[in-house]
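Bumping my old thread because nobody answered last time. Still need a sequence for this structure:
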């Protein structure tokens, strides 16, 4: 990619100075000859003077957290959202605005919005489920016995659980990377399968108390014995990257050391590839306002979305699992051509 001849603005990244995101974003800026500086999340408080961002082109990356306790993650998330609301007052141009990032943290609202636009999504239950007992009652009423349980606003695999209830015997299985430690939920990088009913109830009670969404466990397409879904990065009106995430278990998030493979290796036919691209483009347009009259939030300023998408086993029908306003860290890209970040730098410097 050619260097930017004359940057109109300084590019500012709000993030963690030592993270891979920051290091490769800075590398992209240097490769293009664009003035760049980093603002550490540790100094950006809810009362921070926003003048340092005045007139700048700003990208917001997520903070880095070291805690493994889900209750502490919940507190940090609330703090993060307060900081985003403060940043929304800055006189800056944002790649993804604070308001849009906040909006896309809400899985339930995102799912409902896409569904209202006729975009295929995973089936999310409307009930507010607070306990394991209530969850089982809802499953029996709906005759849906396999579901995912996810904290509504967490990202990655934090707090994700896959639950299966046998409709006749009542036996249970729970797949999760969480465990109870001193009566508190902690997140790990190891997926386990639990079968003890009492242990499952205790963990689900704790998890559901955080405020979770529950969605149908749609069987995913598989290749060579591994199920997979896709992380697709759409930005500036087009698909920039697509990676398949494979797993032997039901949870494919790469945070659990699952395998990322090139989409070309899946052997998908042209119809399926077209359906994937069309679905993602419609979802992107809904939030990002490339077609302003069709955008849900045209004033937000949303130019990138990481989209998680599954293909149903058998039909290969695409369904969007969720969207992430900061879902652009793709290792295959940053360790390759670093195209995603270079494209962002170019846009930010020339806007």
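Sorry it took so long. Here it is:
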């Amino acid at each position: 990619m050619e260097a930017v001849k004359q940057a109109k603005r300084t590019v500012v990244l709000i993030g963690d100075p030592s993270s891979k995101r920051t290091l490769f974003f800075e590398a992209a800026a240097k490769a293009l000859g664009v003035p760049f500086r980093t603002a550490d999340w540790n100094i950006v408080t809810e009362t921070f003077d926003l003048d340092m961002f005045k007139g700048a082109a700003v990208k917001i990356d997520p903070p880095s957290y070291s805690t493994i306790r889900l209750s502490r993650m919940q507190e940090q998330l609330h703090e993060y959202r307060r900081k985003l609301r403060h940043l929304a007052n800055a006189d800056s141009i944002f790649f993804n605005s604070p308001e849009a990032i906040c909006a896309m943290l809400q899985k339930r609202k995102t799912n409902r919005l896409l569904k209202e636009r006729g975009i295929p999504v995973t089936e999310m239950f409307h009930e507010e489920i607070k306990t394991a007992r209530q969850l089982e009652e809802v499953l029996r009423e709906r005759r849906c016995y396999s579901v995912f349980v996810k904290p509504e606003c967490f990202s990655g695999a934090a707090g994700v659980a896959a639950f299966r209830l046998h409709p006749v015997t009542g036996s249970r299985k729970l797949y999760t990377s969480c465990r109870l430690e001193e009566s508190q939920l902690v997140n790990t990088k190891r997926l386990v399968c639990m079968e003890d009913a009492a242990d499952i109830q205790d963990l689900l009670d704790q998890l559901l108390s955080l405020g979770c969404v529950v969605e149908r466990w749609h069987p995913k397409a598989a290749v060579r014995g591994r199920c997979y879904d896709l992380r697709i990065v759409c930005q500036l009106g087009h698909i920039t990257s697509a990676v398949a995430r494979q797993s032997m278990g039901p949870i494919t998030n790469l945070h659990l050391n699952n395998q990322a493979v090139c989409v070309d290796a899946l052997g998908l036919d042209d119809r399926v590839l077209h359906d994937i691209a069309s679905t993602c483009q419609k979802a992107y347009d809904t939030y990002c306002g490339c077609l302003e009259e069709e955008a849900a939030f045209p004033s937000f300023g949303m130019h990138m979305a990481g989209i998680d998408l599954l293909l149903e086993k058998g039909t290969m029908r695409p369904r969007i699992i969720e969207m992430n306003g900061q879902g652009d860290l793709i290792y295959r890209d940053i360790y390759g051509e670093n195209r995603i970040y270079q494209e962002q730098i170019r846009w930010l410097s020339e806007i």
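Residues 46 and 83 are 5 Å apart (CA to CA). Let me know if any region looks off to you.
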